[in-house]
Amino acid sequence: xxxxxxxxxxxxxxxxxxxxxxxxxxxxxxxxxxxxxxxxxxxxxxxxxxxxxxxxxxxxxxxxxxxxxxxxxxxxxxxxxxxxxxxxxxxxxxxxxxxxxxxxxxxxxxxxxxxxxxxxxxxxxxxxxxxxxxxxxxxxxxxxxxxxxxxxxxxxxxxxxxxxxxxxxxxxxxxxxxxxxxxxxxxxxxxxxxxxxxxxxxxxxxxxxxxxxxxxxxxxxxxxxxxxxxxxxxxxxxxxxxxxxxxxxxxxxxxxxxxxxxxxxxxxxxxxxxxxxxxxxxxxxxxxxxxxxxxxxxxxxxxxxxxxxxxxxxxxxxxxxxxxxxxxxxxxxxxxxxxxxxxxxxxxxxxxxxxxxxxxxxxxxxxxxxxxxxxxxxxxxxxxxxxxxxxxxxxxxxxxxxxxxxxxxxxxxxxxxxxxxxxxxxxxxxxxxxxxxxxxxxxxxxxxxxxxxxxxxxxxxx
Length: 462
Description:
Blueprint: E1 7-11, H1 15-26, E2 30-35, E3 53-55, H2 57-65, H3 69-75, E4 77-79, E5 81-85, E6 91-95, E7 103-106, H4 108-121, E8 125-128, E9 131-136, E10 141-145, E11 151-155, E12 158-161, H5 168-173, E13 180-195, E14 208-213, E15 218-223, E16 229-236, H6 237-240, H7 246-256, H8 261-264, H9 266-275, E17 279-287, E18 290-291, E19 295-297, H10 300-303, H11 312-329, H12 334-364, H13 370-385, H14 393-398, H15 404-440, E20 444-445, E21 448-449, H16 451-461
Parallel strand pairs: 1-2, 1-12, 2-8, 5-14, 12-19
Antiparallel strand pairs: 3-7, 4-7, 5-6, 9-10, 10-11, 13-16, 13-17, 14-15, 15-16, 18-19, 20-21
């Protein structure tokens, strides 16, 4: 064994931790991964979030780096568009982009298992049921409580915290660095239901992300390989309080989600909604992401976001790419890599947290707006005419690797330009229509426009 080989402790064996372990192992680091929970691959029941994942370009690019993109894509279900369910049960679709632009519905557990397998194949040593108890960042020392209750001390060159929104590494980091930190619980929670197969097949059209938008709340459904759909109901906690009894619950579903009742089943709706509590949703922002040259946080530990843009996993996976690109630039010199990573990644991650909150408004409300649907068509036409100049917001976020903070700046500039042009065109058209109508209605007297005549007609009409 090379005595000069640098060592890394990855804290957190979730999606980002398992992927980052492979990235660093492929760079020649000696990597050990420590996870507080049991091995997800052998657990009968997995605790934690189960919201389905929507894999897009940023995430796929990261998976390609470690050689598993094709495998994961094969196991996913393609979603080409949003399928909107109106309160009366009618349907319409909103395309994401071109025919080549689509999302993949991915099973969280299966992906996590795949990434752990790949990490071990790359030489990563994994430890489960190891709970972090102490970090000494100056010395590069880290301590865990093992499954037998005994303390396990580890000394490494780099501590990498990928342990989620309630990160223990981040909490320890805040004691040793002047970290700006904020967290916000949004007033909405979520609850999951399942649409089972019908006669052995999918109960709804398969290649869509189904949405029931209801202005202040919504329900979505993503397809699974086993021909079920995972439904997630997002709404204010006070709305969940209105469904305390089975009768209240069914009245609520009949009013807002009438077409979902035969799909989910009345008994399952009652059992799930009345018998469980909604989970909270949180946004976390902090800066910097590192201390010195021996500790860094990534993924939700650095930037937890609400799930409405489907970018939580994709953003976390892109963290691994960005970190790897900076490692390449500075030849693995951690004294330069870590501060540069904080400087480069923080504005993008915070921008994505903001975009995720915005997209909830779009998904639950704006998709019902005629103006929104009109603008979508205009944006797609402009993108078709000028593919390298005009890029719709969703395309930039989901189907490119344009930096997130650049996406926001470009979006605002494009929006201002297009809205201004549309208002000008519509204003000119309105003036022309008024002029033509006025001639027809005799509003011109002696060649001059007569406002008195307009007033007379106004009083007649109203």
